[in-house]
Design a protein that fits this description.
Blueprint lengths: L17 H12 L6 E5 L6 H13 L14 H8 L5 E4 L10 H12 L8 E5 L7 H12 L5 E7 L7 H4 L3 E4 L5 H10 L6 H7 L4 H27 L5 H11 L1 H19 L12 H8 L4 H19 L4 H16 L5
Parallel strand pairs: 1-4, 1-5, 2-3, 3-4
The structure holds zinc ion (ZN).
Length: 337
């Protein structure tokens, strides 16, 4: 089953970035990597993701530069955890707010400190156009006198909003917009849904943005399922109507949604925090959990596993959703004394 919501930001190489990536590694292996890089391109094509990967490659300890990040060395492990001491990331304190001069000065200050490992340091500012004028001016000073063995990566989907003096001191790397067919194929692989094309057009062709739209829409659907489960439990909903509604939603999607819900229900039951559903779903899940025998909950999981097999055998979707409803009713039925 595809992992729909990654726990932490990804630095997977996206298929449409491969050429740019090879070019970057070529520069790195030839020892001609620029001190300052401006990574630009439209919103939602994965610029930050590429910057994260680039930062990991720059601090990676592998001698095989073209295979970086190697994912095996100590530096790569730190990068993966997001705790590499020589990778510094600067973003606005809140989305949509400006990056202020104090933050840039702080970053520059850190570039003057001695490094932890191999003397390589990476500074990423994203989105770079969020810097206000004073912040940009402070940064300009560093660009005029680059610190040896440090790399500055500016990420921007609006590079024209950066002062020309900054742009001219950076090597520009541009990610172009992604062909719809390539983006749709990638989205399909993520197992998001079957309306990739409409999400892509809504996102102006930007695959990562489209993925977010699809994820949000799917979360909405899952929350509808949580409501349905609650109404079934309290016997306020008509099981036949719910089964019909689920059948319309598609047995596969319902099954996937129920699995997410159960995953978090079981997490909740063992005192952990939610991972698949938004935090505000917690209250609803508490209601679902109330008075439910844990053993019965596992029976429900078993039944979902059986139904998944039958789904793979192309069994009638309407019949499957009816069985899902019945299994949940059995789970929530009060024990007879
Ligand atoms: Zn490595």
């Amino acid at each position: 089953m595809p992992e729909a919501v990654p726990d932490r930001p990804s630095r997977e190489l996206l298929p449409w970035q491969e050429e740019t990536w090879r070019h970057l590694l070529d520069r790195l292996s030839s020892g001609r990597f620029p001190h300052a890089l401006l990574l630009s391109g439209p919103r939602g094509v994965g610029k930050e993701q590429l910057a994260r990967r680039l930062a990991a490659a720059l601090v990676c300890e592998s001698q095989e530069v073209m295979d970086r990040p190697c994912e095996a060395c100590p530096s790569c492990r730190l990068s993966r955890a997001g705790t590499h001491p020589d990778v510094h990331w600067l973003a606005p304190e809140e989305e949509g707010k400006a990056i202020r001069i104090d933050a840039v000065r702080d970053l520059i200050g850190r570039s003057a400190l001695t490094t932890q490992a191999r003397g390589v340091r990476v500074f990423v500012i994203s989105p770079a156009e969020a810097m206000n004028r004073a912040a940009a001016n402070a940064l300009l000073k560093t660009l005029e006198e680059p610190v040896p063995s440090s790399t500055l990566v500016l990420v921007s989907s609006a590079p024209h909003r950066l002062p020309a003096t900054i742009r001219s001191r950076c090597q520009q790397v541009t990610l172009n917009s992604v062909q719809i067919a390539v983006a749709a194929a990638w989205l399909k692989k993520r197992g998001t849904s079957d309306d990739e094309e409409s999400a892509l057009s809504l996102a102006g062709g930007a695959p990562l943005l489209a993925l977010r739209f699809l994820e949000e829409k799917r979360l909405e659907q899952v929350m509808r399922l949580v409501e349905d489960l609650g109404a079934l439990k309290t016997r306020k909903a008509n099981p036949v109507a719910v089964a019909a509604h689920w059948s319309q939603m598609g047995a596969e999607k319902v099954l996937d949604g129920l699995r997410r819900i159960l995953g978090d229900l079981l997490r909740l039951a063992s005192g952990q925090t939610l991972r698949l559903l938004p935090p505000d779903a917690g209250e609803h899940l508490q209601v679902l959990m109330k008075n439910i025998n844990l053993r019965k909950l596992f029976d429900f999981v078993d039944e979902l596993n059986r139904l998944e097999l039958q789904l793979a055998n192309n069994l009638n979707g309407a019949m499957l959703t009816e069985r899902m409803v019945n299994a949940w009713l059995a789970t929530t039925r009060a024990e007879k004394r």
